[in-house]
Design goal:
The complex is a heterodimer of chains A (112) and B (114). With 112 residues, chain A is mostly beta strands. Chain A is built from no helices and 9 strands. Chain B is globular, with a radius of gyration of 13 Å. Classes of the chains: A mainly beta (112), B mainly beta (114).
Chain lengths: 112, 114
């Protein structure tokens, strides 16, 4: 499966923007970039996904590099509730598998 | 709309026993996937089902099995439990077979093997 690389951990202050990077240099043209997060003691939850263009939703924005070899999840104003492990996942169409391949993710700490 | 439910939430078993975990997907969802989460290995894919058929399987021994019923509910079974099977088992459902469909996760079943 195509691999993603994320920093192990990041820190942010409450109400400040957070930029979570992800490298996926082996991405192919049909692979989607998905982000999920896992809050403490909960199952993962979907955050956002994209293919080529930048995407926005109520939770976050996804900025995708022009060559698609990297992407950045942007939380516009971090809250304490955003403290979680964030996973950048490539959904590889050619495998025919709909399930997710999780890496180790980035643990985001938010300071009050 | 109710979310994905998993039962039981907590389970303690001893080595050599077997266990069955249950997952009820969101109403209308026909795809169910199972994952194992441990501190050492992180989140690993076990298997996925769609319309009662296993579509893909992860790299786990044959002691791990599953099935899906006609109402889309799913069960997974682990036989001859080992200490290393202690983990959080997560179930996720999605609406269809589309490649990019969002997966909705349940709260998990925490299995402890003594």
């Amino acid at each position: 499966d195509a691999k993603t690389t994320q920093p192990n951990s990041m820190e942010s202050n409450e109400e400040e923007p957070v930029h979570l990077p992800c490298n996926h240099s082996t991405i192919s043209g049909t692979d989607y970039i998905h982000w999920y997060r896992q809050l403490p003691s909960q199952g993962p939850e979907y955050v956002i996904h994209g293919l080529t263009s930048n995407v926005n939703n109520r939770m976050a924005s996804l900025a995708i590099a022009e060559d698609r070899k990297s992407s950045t999840l942007i939380l516009h104003r971090a809250t304490l509730r955003d403290a979680a492990v964030y996973y950048c996942i490539l959904r590889v169409r050619d495998t025919g598998r709909r399930a997710l391949t999780f890496g180790s993710g980035t643990r985001l700490q938010v300071q009050p | 709309k109710a979310g994905v439910t998993q039962t039981p939430r907590y389970l303690i078993k001893t080595r050599g026993q077997q266990v069955t975990l249950s997952c009820s997907p969101i109403s209308g969802h026909r795809s169910v996937s199972w994952y194992q989460q441990t501190p050492g290995q992180g989140l690993q894919f076990l298997f996925e089902y769609f319309s009662e058929t296993q579509r893909n399987k992860g790299n786990f021994p044959g002691r791990f099995s599953g099935r899906q019923f006609s109402n889309s509910r799913s069960e997974m079974n682990v036989s001859t439990l080992e200490l290393g099977d202690s983990a959080l088992y997560l179930c996720a459902s999605s609406f269809g077979q589309d490649f990019y469909n969002e997966q909705f996760f349940g709260p998990g079943t925490r299995l402890t093997v003594l």
